[in-house]
Design a protein that fits this description.
The structure is a homodimer of 199-residue chains. Chain A is of the alpha/beta class and 199 residues long. The first copy, chain A, has seven helices and six strands; from the N terminus they run αααβββαβαβαβα. In chain A, α1 crosses α2. At the A-B interface, α1, α2, α3, β2 and α4 of A face α1, α2, α3, β2 and α4 of B.
Chain lengths: 199, 199
């Protein structure tokens, strides 16, 4: 029904997460309506990001050079490392302005069912970073999901035996700010109770 | 917070309709995760669509040559023309398989407030097509909105005086199939009543 170039664009757009056939068609018609300049800016941005962005050689975060901006920043505390699953997880933590250390991006979470073993993640690379004795605390900030928790436990076990001098912490579990107790799920509320703090 | 190429991609993605900052970031990280091949396929599809798709010289629908596939198709009934606002409106009508004529894409709807006058649309081009006497019916399929209805009335007025021999019809207004009377808005229900048909 569409001319081949239009159909091809719709097909490619529909591969994006959360974009179904209808949305892909709407986006394609938008691109057809905009100026060549605007459309080419998007096409070039996609090319550029794939050509210029790689992984930081230290922490495996996204980087436009050998090291990411955080690893290259001397003002960041070299004694703290926050371990996250994906590059996208660095952004929300940075937005809090509560963490001044560096990161280590695992590239996923352990999931034996999906065939993701420790060798598939940057776990040995994390352990290698701990070798020089500069790091004093590892903050495990994997997602509060089954695979994320399993990954945190796996790393915590290793650190406890091999690096008993390094503090290992994880993000607090509890009620999100602004939540309503009435609608909190029992797992979250349970964790909030177990982790209650003195006022 | 992001490396410049990543930020640039997020900015460009956020210009797409219905894509906010968060979604743009999620799409950008998806593009960063996929293979170069997949990402370049999307970038190339955007470029290709802008370079190869233009407007049909007859009906102003999207076309990858001088004429769109519908105008180039001899099996389509040359006596019927369906007038729509945008190229995207052709697709849903084609999907019904109820229309075997050709189209005329106006490129928008009359809207004096937004400065859209008859000269800004392909209205005179429509009248020019009617000159050769081949067209027997014009189906006005503009959107059932204020501007769409105004555009249909504008064209209908002209046709009634200049081409009294050409039938002018418009899409039926009424309840959508599967609708619930209880939740129908009064305008739609009113049109369904006025347009009631004998059984």
């Amino acid at each position: 029904m569409h001319a081949p170039p239009v159909q091809r664009l719709i097909t490619e757009l529909a591969k994006l997460p959360g974009v179904g056939g209808r949305t892909a068609q709407r986006l394609a018609f938008h691109i057809l309506r905009e100026t060549d300049e605007d459309a080419f800016a998007l096409a070039d941005a996609i090319r550029e990001v794939k050509e210029r962005i790689g992984l930081c050689e230290v922490c495996f975060n996204l980087a436009d050079g050998p090291r990411c901006r955080i690893c290259a920043d001397d003002r960041r505390d070299p004694a703290m490392v926050c371990v996250v699953e994906e590059p996208g997880d660095v952004i929300p933590i940075e937005r809090t302005h509560e963490f001044r250390g560096r990161y280590h991006v695992l590239g996923g979470a352990l999931s034996p069912i999906d065939g993701v073993d420790p060798d598939d993640l940057k776990i040995s690379e994390l352990y290698a970073r701990l070798g020089d004795g500069e790091i004093r605390e590892v903050v495990l900030a994997t997602n509060p999901t089954t695979t994320g928790e399993a990954t945190a436990l796996h790393i915590a076990d290793h650190l406890r035996t091999r690096h008993p001098d390094i503090a290992v912490t994880k993000l607090a579990s509890g009620l999100p700010v602004g939540a309503d107790l009435e609608y909190a799920d029992e797992l979250t509320l349970g964790k909030a109770l177990v982790g209650r703090r003195a006022l």
